[in-house]
User: Which sequence fits this backbone?
């Protein structure tokens, strides 16, 4: 299992499937090139000070270390986003939450983890051409400044 380190990889996982849990959010995407599972961790400053954020990150890393063999699939990128609830939630419950979240992600199928292309945004809304074009404001003619 490898670690995600580049921002591009974190952003790609954020754009794919996600499964929320009480203490964290799991984001996952299927990579085209395959390979071993890669995992990244992030905890924002809203969670608390540096000591609390590091404690959440350590708990998340330990959950992945203990359950990775039976839950994570090869060829996928996973990002765990820590929440403040991870400070007080029982560790065993967090392990069950992680296994459930990963199972939900993979039950969604390949489109859920970024394997299949999504529909373009313009197809999701109203049909093209039904809205009138925006009104244009006329240009104001300003007199040229006088030079004396």
Assistant:
């Amino acid at each position: 299992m490898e670690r995600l380190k580049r921002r591009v990889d974190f952003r790609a996982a954020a754009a794919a499937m996600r499964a929320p849990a009480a203490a964290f959010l799991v984001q996952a995407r299927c990579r085209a090139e395959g390979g071993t599972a890669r995992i990244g961790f992030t905890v924002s400053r809203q969670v608390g000070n540096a000591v609390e954020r590091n404690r959440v990150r350590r708990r998340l890393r330990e959950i992945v270390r203990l359950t990775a063999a039976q839950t994570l699939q090869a060829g996928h990128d996973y990002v765990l986003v820590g929440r403040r609830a991870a400070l007080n939630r029982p560790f065993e419950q967090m392990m069950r939450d992680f296994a459930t979240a990963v199972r939900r992600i993979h039950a969604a199928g390949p489109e859920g983890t970024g394997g299949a292309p999504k529909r373009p945004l313009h197809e999701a809304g109203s049909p093209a051409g039904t809205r009138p074009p925006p009104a244009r404001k006329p240009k104001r003619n300003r007199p040229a400044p006088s030079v004396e």
In short: The beta strands are 2-3, 17-20, 24-30, 38-42, 76-82. Residues 23 and 94 are 7 Å apart (CA to CA). The mean pLDDT is 83.
